[in-house]
Amino acid sequence: MTVVAQVLVFAGVAVVVVSALAMLRARTLLNRLHLLAPVTTLGAPLIGLGLALATGWNLGSGAILLTVVLLAVTGPVLQSAAGRVEAQRRGAIDEDLPS
C-alpha cells in the first residue's frame, strides 16, 4: 500500500471513528443524522479512494469507486428525507408543505 493510500484510508477511518464517538453522546435523531453526514460525504470517499489506490486500477477498484459514488450521492438524500419525516412527526414543519 502506498503512503498516499495509507493516509487517505487513515483520514477516512478517523472521520468515521470521531463521528461514531460523537454519535454516542447524541440524544435525538436529528443530531444523529447531523453526525452521520461526515461519514457518507467525507469518510467513505476517503476510504474508498485509498483502497482503490492500494489495489491498483482494476475491476475491483472500479467496484469500490462505484460504491463510494453511490453512497456519496444517496447518503445526503436519505438523511434529508429521514430528517424531514422526523421534523413532521415532531410538528416542527407542516405536513402539507411541498418538499
From TrEMBL:
Entries under Pfam families matching the protein: PhaG_MnhG_YufB (PF03334)
GO MF annotation list: antiporter activity
Biological process according to GO: inorganic cation transmembrane transport
Alphabetic keyword roster: Membrane, Transmembrane, Transmembrane helix
Transmembrane region(s): 6-24, 36-57, 63-82
InterPro entries in the cross-refs: PhaG_MnhG_YufB
Superkingdom, natural source: Bacteria
Full protein name: Multisubunit Na+/H+ antiporter, MnhG subunit
